[in-house]
Amino acid sequence: MSLQKLLYYVQAWHLAITDTPLFSERIKAWKDGPVVPDVWHKRQDQASRRPAVQELDGVELDELASDLIDLVLAAYGSMSGEELSALTHVEQPWNEAREGVPEGANSQNPIDPATMATFYRAHRMLAGRSAADLAAGGIHLHSHEVVGPVDVDALLAELGGPEFDPGDDPWGGGNLHDSTRYAGKGIEHGCRRTYAGA
Question: 108 pLDDT band (50/70/90 cuts)?
Fold first, then answer.
């Protein structure tokens, strides 16, 4: 059950971030939550789950897909299949696909990819970031690993190029105000007008 729900969340977030599906198989709104029937049928036999018999030749993921899978696993991977199922049951995409189906009844209704994309864009965060943030800033796991001291002078020199002079403003300070315009507490002083009778 966990695999099915994790596939669903990978697909949902890929749709939300890129507006394209990661894989072409349809996801169905089964009674226990979203399921990719092709994967379910292939993995029904216990023997097919052994790594030695899995066909992985030709499976290639680009960096975005690989990073997204890592991020989804980091966010959802500690949850049990039952917890993931319960989570999908309170979300719009599965509920919308189950509309009109009695509770607990089997269904082959597909979950609409457009609904998945819209819902996760508008109502969910992945690792504390929205789909728009992930699309703009890239998909990566936050790492708290310290890789060693940073040589600030070398970093600034690299950013400024060979002509870098620490006295220059390589980032352009045109939007900075003269500090003499501000009082000690950051309050800007300027001309004020008094209007009689106002």
Answer: very high
Beta bridge partners of 188: 182
Classify residue 22 by its DSSP letter. Answer: S
Between 29 and 141, the higher pLDDT residue: 29
Query: Please, are residues 40 and 27 in contact by the beta-carbon 8 Å criterion?
Result: no
Mean pLDDT for all residues in the chain: 79
CB 129 within 8 A of CB 137: yes
**Which of 35-39, 94-98, 155-159, 192-196 is modeled with the greatest confidence?**
94-98
What are 126's strand-pairing partners? Answer: 129
42-75: burial string, b at 16+ Cβ within 10 Å, e else = eeeeeeeeeeeeeeeeeeeeeebbebbbebbeeb
